[in-house]
Amino acid sequence: MRSVDQIMNLVLAVAKADNRIRAVGMNGSRTNANAPVDPFMDYDIAFLVNDIQSFMKDTGWIDVFGERIIMQTPEDMKLFPPELGNRFSYLMLFTDGNRIDLTLVPIEEMEIYLNEDSLTKIVLDKDNRISELPFPTDQDYWVKPPTAAFFADCCNEFWWVTTYVAKGLWRCEMLYAMGHMNLVRSMLRKMLEWHVGIETNFKISVGKNGKYLKRYLQEDTWYQLLQTYPEGNNDSCWRALFVMCELFEKTSQLVANVYDFTYPRQEAQQVLEFLQHVKKLPNDATEI
Q1: DSSP designation for 202
Q2: How far, in Å, CA of 128 to CA of 124, rounded?
Q3: CA 120 → CA 7, 45, 114, 139, distances in Å?
Q4: Around Cβ 69, how many Cβ atoms within 10 Å?
């Protein structure tokens, strides 16, 4: 596996040799002092360029970065709508295990790029046009405190979607049930994020998909959260659903107490009773 120095020296060599590339930026985990260092860390690189179309016409220029296992160019894909506007990205996984996510950014969007991510670091500026940026920080990704409206919506979405899970389980429609269970869990995770935000004065990031949550949760809470991921059968899914309900109630009431929010206790109890009723409902029932 090529070292960090080897990869970065290669990136800078390519940029210095191409007059169209005017600056090189970097962000993501490799500029985040709070991210654990491991071999799977991506290199999130941006080339700020003139004449972006000329790069896209000749894709062979990226071969210099090494032999690839696979590449994705999201802005060329039809199944998923592109999200980067005038930019173009090459997501490359190499045979040595390194991964480079390289984005071409039109030089006209330089100011936007420099101000959109607090983890941005400039590693090359050919024209000395870029003022010194603040030291990279993950502050843009810190958990944000909830508003009363956000809290209420989170609670409502959690309890509302649990009824879809119950319906799917009763019908033995496992994919339907588990798909909605993922939505329910996302609301649980949001509530857990607010709770750990309170515990840390909202000065932490829990990472994409809550990947750092384990750092901040008590061991029993973490264990409960893991129990919300079921096996592919009805009994396991029902158990996971009720664990989610228990953990959500406990956590949401802790958050509500801090902010003096109103937790919909009666509504939650009514939904919980409905879930328990559906679980006991015979498969040949003609009425709920």
Answers
A1: T
A2: 9
A3: 18, 10, 7, 12
A4: 11
